[in-house]
Amino acid sequence: MTEGRNLIEVKIGALIMDPNTNSPIVVLKGVDSEAVLPIWVGAFEANAIALEIEKVLPQRPMTHDLLRNLIVQCGLEAQRVIVTDLSDNTFYARVELIDLNGNEVSLDARPSDAIALALRLDCPIFIEQDVLDKSAAANQPGPTATDDEPPVEEWPELIG
Q1: Number of separate domains in the chain
Q2: Do strands 90-98 and 104-109 pair parallel, antiparallel, or not at all (unpaired)?
Q3: Which residues pair with 24 in a beta bridge?
Q4: Which of 33, 48, 71, 98 falls 20 to 30 Å from 62 in CA-CA distance?
Q5: Residue 152 counted as domain residue
Q6: Is residue 112 part of a domain?
Q7: Which of 1, 93, 78, 105 is nearest to 41 (CA)?
Q8: Over its length of 160 residues, how does the chain's per-residue pLDDT go in tens digits?
Q9: What is the pairing mode between strands 36-40 and 77-87?
């Protein structure tokens, strides 16, 4: 699926609110590196991520829980989630699965949805090095790339 690409494993380092736009930000931090990638996300996706981080069980399955249940019931196994691209201030991601016959199944997804699903499936999250390079090359005090929200001018002071 992504053989030959330089992948950096990350975890959720923080889930914060941007004080400039009042939009949620998921901050991905390298597991074995100094990589940091903030992604502005929608409120519903941030809530889905926060619920799973805090292990809050809703009374009824939410959308990401439903998708996890579908993946499990169909016999698919989650391999990993990868943030694959940054283009025109939008991040792209992929959920990589294996079916019962060992075939690879790759699903296009918004990073926020892919991250919420990765938490529920307990699978690793990666970023392609090219995405980090593009984000760093944006030449601003803080990232302007987004998943669901408009660009932001300043980096929030909340991340340490």
Answers
A1: 1
A2: antiparallel
A3: 17
A4: 98
A5: no
A6: yes
A7: 93
A8: 545 579 999 999 999 999 999 999 999 999 999 999 999 999 999 999 999 999 998 899 999 999 999 999 999 999 999 999 999 989 999 999 999 999 999 999 999 999 999 999 999 999 999 999 998 886 455 444 556 554 444 444 444 3
A9: unpaired
Alpha-carbon torsion (103, 76, 52, 45), positive or negative: positive
> CA 14, CA 143: separation in Å to the nearest integer?
15
What residue type is assigned to position 61 of the chain?
Answer: P
pTM of the model: 0.82
Q: Is residue 79 part of a domain?
A: yes
Question: Domain range for residue 30?
Answer: 7-136
- The values of phi and psi at residue 28, to 5°, are -95, 130
Q: Strands 125-128 and 77-87: what pairing?
A: parallel
Q: What is the CATH number of the domain that holds 44?
A: 3.10.690.10
Sheet holding 7-17, edge to edge: 36-40, 24-30, 7-17, 125-128, 77-87, 90-98, 104-109
